[in-house]
Specification:
Blueprint lengths: L16 H13 L6 E5 L6 H4 L5 E5 L12 H12 L4 E5 L28 H16 L4 E4 L7 E2 L11 E2 L13 H10 L5 E3 L6 E2 L3 E8 L3 E6 L2 E5 L2 E3 L2 E8 L3 E11 L2 E11 L6
Parallel strand pairs: 1-2, 2-3, 3-4, 8-15
Antiparallel strand pairs: 5-6, 7-9, 9-13, 10-11, 10-14, 12-13, 14-15
Length: 281
Amino acid sequence: MEPVQRNQFEEPGWPGSHCHRSAALAKAEDPDRTTTAAECKDGIENLPKLVPVVNLLALNAYPGWYFGKAEDMGEVIDQWNAAFGPKGIMISEYGAGAPIRQHQQDFTGRAVGRTPRDWHPEEYQALVHAKAYAAIQARPAVFGSFVGNMFDFAAANRNEGDTPGINGKGLVTRDHKVGNDALFFYQANWAAEPMVYITSRRDVNRTEPVTPVKVYSNCDKVELNVNGKDYGSARDSAPHVLVWNGVSLQDGESRIEVEGTSHGHAVQDRCQWIYHPKPAN
């Protein structure tokens, strides 16, 4: 095997020139192994230079987190595929941060007026994943995708969310003990065994008397019961996401219970919320 020269694959002025050298070295070591390289959304202009260098192209894209809205993943994929479609698309990272101690009762977006660096509610992470995953699944050009990240992990240079030194994009806490709501979104989409899961379960202390209830499930039918009141079944509003709007909470404790049925097999989940009326002005 002839050694690969250090400057053989240099492209002066392009920071990604090391990809040329790495790809050449990989092929020299193992000509049959597939190679890939990833760019971030703000480096997408460099992708044309990678097309002849590696076998597969990848993109780290965080719509709704580092740029744009959660709904923008489809547009990002379409833009990329229009330029580099013959090689297909791999989304090598996507997602959002969420410490399990930050919550908001509205899960349709991130609360206005909060500082994005410090406010990473679990409900918003789940929304970002559901929107991005739906866009990925709807586009055959995407041959692979990878959630960023499975677990929260140490990152000394970060000071965000509610804990300095942590990258909080994991679906599971750093100690590997608690799964975020988003983890159960993927369980609903990927698991074969029937499951049902009430989201926002850790947002125990509520300040609004009327709330939506969102559930992840792969069951054929899911019914909601709150404090003995039957709210019936809900329509699937996204991949295995069910929402009941206008659910009333009583003063004090409210029992939230759901039952899913799949091919005659029933599964249940329950949690408790506590509604504290706002003090009068």
